[in-house]
Amino acid sequence: MSFLDKMSQGTRYSTRAANAVATVADGAPDKVLAFSAALFADQPAEGTDGLSDDEIAKLASDAGVPPEVVARFPELTFEPWVTASTGAVFDTGVTGTPTVKINGAVFRGYLYTAGPLTQAVTAAKGQP
Questions:
Q1: Based on the domain organization, do 78 and 111 belong to the same domain?
Q2: Is residue 43 domain-shared with residue 81, that is, in the same domain?
Q3: In the chain, N or C terminus with fewer CB closer than 10 Å?
């Protein structure tokens, strides 16, 4: 999702990072999890420029993404898909991350302890 572009000082970090992940999914799908984990581990703070293209490429390389796949990042091949999929997700009621849906309804309770979410899932399942 690219909804944090507005928080990256005009560098469109979210779009560039999402495009890079999609490029890896297309060219080296077995490296997507490692690359995604690296991006999250080095996630920049909101309100900063985000990672540069070179920094994104280094994280990908360090995660084992082949050089020929990394070389495709600047083409932004998947930018239209990133934009369309972000819009489609927002059209479903998602307003940010994390968002949890239970049977299609957005969970409005507190997500950071097991109790409320567990209760909501149990209730949706129909258990006492």
A1: no
A2: yes
A3: C
